[in-house]
Amino acid sequence: MPSSIVLPPGYGYVAAGFVATAWVLGWQALVVGSHRTKSGIKYPQLYAEKAEAAASKEAMLFNCAQRAHQNTIEHMPLIILTTLVTAMKYPVFAGYACGFWALSRVLYTLGYATGDPVKRNTRGGIIGEIPLVGLLLGSTYTAFDLLRSSA
């Protein structure tokens, strides 16, 4: 028996936020691949060893680009979950917050990929905490409201 899912008005913003995140992840993978090639770090090695990074600027740049990408991947479950829950009641807010977070990851990566890890936050990457906190609060409120209305 067929069933359907009804999406709230404005859900296109959520889709756009997720698609922006996918593009950022793809771009980060290209940045990492470029630095991997330049550094000569072969697969399956995930990072340059400490001695390699100390001896080669290219290896250090690879480690920084790889770490920025890995950190984004580590955040994805939280971003996906909180965006989807928040979007049940506030799809436009959720979509914008997810998209804003994706943009912040570009700034984070550009700063980190300079080879100076401190620049991951000083180049604007820290602003990604704003939409993340907004999504955490939005999803918490949405879950509470859904529980309250079902009681």
UniProtKB/TrEMBL annotation:
Its annotated compartments are: Membrane
Please list every transmembrane segment annotated in the UniProt record, as residue ranges: 12-32, 78-104, 124-144
Q: Which InterPro entries match?
A: MAPEG, MAPEG-like_dom_sf, Membr-assoc_MAPEG
User: What's one GO-annotated cellular component?
Assistant: membrane
From the UniProt record, which GO molecular function terms apply?
A: glutathione peroxidase activity; glutathione transferase activity
What domain of life does the UniProt record list for this protein's source?
Eukaryota
Q: What are the alphabetically sorted keywords of the record? A: Membrane, Transmembrane, Transmembrane helix
Q: How does it sit in the membrane?
A: Multi-pass membrane protein
Q: What PANTHER family does this protein's entry cite?
A: GLUTATHIONE S-TRANSFERASE 3, MITOCHONDRIAL, MICROSOMAL GLUTATHIONE S-TRANSFERASE
The molecule here is called Membrane-associated proteins in eicosanoid and glutathione metabolism
> Could you read off the lineage of the organism from its UniProt record?
Eukaryota, Fungi, Dikarya, Basidiomycota, Agaricomycotina
